[in-house]
Automatic annotation (TrEMBL):
Region ranges (Disordered): 1-37
Keyword Transferase on entry: no
SUPFAM superfamilies reported for this sequence: Expressed protein At2g23090/F21P24.15
Biased composition regions of type Basic residues, renumbered to the chain: 1-11
Lineage: Eukaryota, Viridiplantae, Streptophyta, Embryophyta, Tracheophyta
The entry's keywords: Cytoplasm, Nucleus
Record's protein name: Zinc finger protein
Species for this entry: Iris pallida
Length: 106
């Protein structure tokens, strides 16, 4: 005999919610960081504020940000950085990288 109207097993809705939470990118971790930064084409961050480097997905959101954070400066959409148009390429550094424990090997 079971308890007071408590189901014995998980419902299909509960299982579907758990699967959705486990498989959907919620913006955390390395995948979320790449998505927010707009490095990969198709990321959510398309525009970057030239004043404070905050990213936004579209022009309207960037204008809302600008009106709230920089009210004394007039909004000029030509100064915005389009992160999808520019490709960020990592430049090779001339400095040697440290070893496993942080010391440079000679």
């Amino acid at each position: 005999m079971t308890g007071k109207a408590k189901p014995k097993k998980h419902t299909a809705k509960e299982i579907a919610a758990k699967v959705d939470a486990a498989t959907t990118n919620r913006g955390g971790g390395k995948a979320g960081l790449a998505d927010r930064s707009g490095i990969e084409k198709g990321g959510h961050a398309k525009l970057e504020c030239p004043l404070c480097k905050v990213t936004a997905p579209d022009l309207k959101t960037m204008q809302i940000h600008h009106d709230a954070r920089h009210p004394k400066i007039p909004f000029d959409e030509s100064k915005l950085n389009n992160l999808h148009a520019t490709k960020l390429v990592a430049e090779p550094s001339s400095k040697p990288k440290p070893g496993v424990r942080g010391s440079l090997k000679n």
